[in-house]
Amino acid sequence: SQQGEEDPQALSIQEGENATMNCSYKTSINNLQWYRQNSGRGLVHLILIRSNEREKHSGRLRVTLDTSKKSSSLLITASRAADTASYFCATDGYSGAGSYQLTFGKGTKLSVIP
Amino acid sequence: DTGVSQNPRHKITKRGQNVTFRCDPISEHNRLYWYRQTLGQGPEFLTYFQNEAQLEKSRLLSDRFSAERPKGSFSTLEIQRTEQGDSAMYLCASTSPVRQGITYEQYFGPGTRLTVT
């Protein structure tokens, strides 16, 4: 079952604008991660934020985490056409069997128009 | 290339046939995961290996599915008597050992796209 829910499901912006995607989840987590997936390809890890962190930056990416609201946001600044992809949030939590499997949302499809 | 590799990249098969996919993880990663992704959805967990031991299986993994990781290196996922509902992207991921309760990002392979006709 999907734990995270991304919002919006689709987002279209002009190159140079900022893109913000939100993620909500249901159960307690160890980490929250964001991944990017270009059409028909594997997932690329973008950023990991631990449950005791509130904000993290990596290049043009900024991620926030609010564990009290069980939500996270991903901000991509100064977007480029190459940022066009689907973005997924994923949570990991101890399952009891030691897997720390990732539970993904359905993703936000971002289109950056040149 | 030292990333996660998967073979084949694409597989078209007729309903009822058996298929096998292979995943080669990053060499120092002892944890390996299989996920399935259908169109418009995020990946869903199928099964997990720590070294050669299969420690967790999702309820999505019916008895037609079997996975192995002999010697704790590469892994195979076999689907017997394929059905049209098995059509999906099958993703493999690997990651470093958990240390002091700290987990790490997962590295995904390019996936195997299965089409059952």
Major sheet details of chain B: 7 strands, mixed
Shape descriptor of chain A: globular
Main sheet record of chain A: 6 strands, mixed
How confident overall, as mean pLDDT of chain A? 91
Q: Any idea what the radius of gyration of chain B is?
A: 14 Å
Count of individual beta strands of chain B: 11
| Chain pair sharing the greatest interface | A-B, 29 and 31 residues
Q: Which structural class do the helices and strands of chain A define?
A: mainly beta
Strand percentage of chain A: over 45%
| Approximate helicity band of chain B | under 10%
CA-atom Rg of chain A in angstroms: 14 Å
Q: Note the quaternary state here.
A: heterodimer
List segments of chain B where confidence is low: pLDDT < 50 over at least 5 consecutive residues.
none
Instruction: Classify the helix fraction of chain A into a percent range.
Output: under 10%
- The first-to-last residue Cα distance of chain B is 33 Å
Topology pattern of chain A, helix = H, strand = E? EEEEEEEEEEE
Ends apart, CA distance between termini of chain A? 36 Å
Number of DSSP helical runs of chain B: 0
Q: How does the overall form of chain B come out from the CA principal axes?
A: globular
Can you give a write-up of this model?
The complex is a heterodimer of chains A (114) and B (117). By secondary structure, chain A is mainly β. Helix content of chain A is 0%, strand content 54%. Chain A contains no helices and 11 strands. Chain A has strands at residues 5-7, 10-14, 19-24, 31-37, 43-50, 55-58, 61-66, 71-76, 85-92, 102-104, 108-113. In chain A, strands 2, 4, 5, 9, 10 and 11 form a 6-stranded mixed β-sheet that branches. The model of chain A has no long low-confidence stretch (mean pLDDT 91). In chain B, strands 2, 4, 5, 6, 9, 10 and 11 form a 7-stranded mixed β-sheet that branches. Chain B is mainly beta and 117 residues long. The termini of chain B are far apart. Chain B contains no helices and 11 strands. Chain B has strands at residues 5-7, 10-13, 19-24, 31-37, 44-50, 53-57, 65-68, 75-79, 88-95, 107-108, 112-116. Chain B is 0% helix and 48% strand. The chains are: A mainly beta (114), B mainly beta (117). The A-B interface holds A 2, 4, 30-31, 33, 35, 40-45, 48, 50, 88, 90, 92, 95, 97-107 and B 4, 6, 31, 33, 35, 40-45, 48, 50, 55-56, 89, 91, 93, 98, 101-111, 113.
